[in-house]
Amino acid sequence: MRVKVAATFVAAVVVASAHASTLPPPSFRLAWFPSAIAAAGPRVAIASADCTILVATLAGNSKRVAVRAPRQCRDNESDVALWDLWLGRAALAITTIDAPSPHGESYALWTGPLPRGPLRQQGDDWGWTDSDEPHTFGCAWSIAAGGGVIASAHVPNTLGPYETACPAGPSSKIMLSGAAPAQLTVAGSWSILATDGKRLALARLDQVGRETGELAVFDLHGKRLAAPKLAPAVVKSAFKGWLAPEGLVVETGRGVSGPGWTVSGGRAATVAEGRLLYLKGRTVRVRRLRGGADRALLKLPTSRALLAAGSFGLAIATGTDESSRVFRVPWRTIDRTLPRR
Description:
Blueprint: E1 28-30, E2 36-40, E3 43-47, E4 53-57, E5 64-67, H1 71-74, E6 80-87, E7 91-101, E8 104-113, E9 120-129, E10 136-137, E11 140-146, E12 149-155, E13 171-177, E14 183-187, E15 190-195, E16 199-205, E17 211-219, E18 224-225, H2 232-237, E19 240-244, E20 247-252, E21 255-258, E22 261-264, E23 267-272, E24 275-280, E25 283-288, E26 294-299, E27 305-310, E28 313-319, E29 324-329, H3 331-334
Antiparallel strand pairs: 1-29, 2-3, 3-4, 4-5, 6-7, 7-8, 8-9, 9-10, 11-12, 12-13, 13-14, 15-16, 16-17, 17-18, 19-20, 20-21, 21-22, 23-24, 24-25, 25-26, 27-28, 28-29
């Protein structure tokens, strides 16, 4: 399962202008295809399945540094792989998966300071196995990032086929990296859908950890605020979200929903600076969160791509297992495709 990878870099290119229908020159190249990408401010973090993690500053000189992976990832005998990552203003969070056989999986959450780490495990592993009783073990983590903040909370572990580990309690404690206070507690059981660094959009869970469809927004001191109207079915199926001044945007298996609109079939979505960017087939599309035209930005050579947006614009990683490239498309280029507000 573990695949050895190596990265080859070329000099970064700062794009002064580019036609909206073509890719600019790549900012850097990789000898592998990323398994995850995230952005915050001027930085982008990009990682491979075997926990090669790079942090690049795309808004300036594109300087890149390697984050020291957890020891479990670096062990030649290990089956541990990177599952997902989140980027904040001053910290990075990743989840890893250890699946040495089809009889179970184990996950872990790791966090550390930018730019190089080290990454340290938070709490215990969680997962499932069909060889022990009970089949499910540990509390899972719910994680979201936005506004420079990474928010995380323990939630019931629903991975097992027969029972739930770590059942819901009367309240949820949410840890905040990059914000003050560093934690808050809200009544009820909630997963974290999105944050903008000042507010949290939460989805309520029932006693066994299933989404109820209720959405709530809290400030970082636990005060409940007005929540946007979102159909319970959308809240239940949302697996990623962005909380912006224009409203809440969520991605589901069917597409992307925002304030008063839905994009069917959209995937690999990313939100920043009041715009949504997403993939539909091989085409990167863009729209403003407050509504208006939905426009094609550019067509990629393959539909295999990951997107992340920050203050630098849009980062696109695309390619094959053996070779991929990371491109930066500045906001001024993106906005040439959108009508003036």
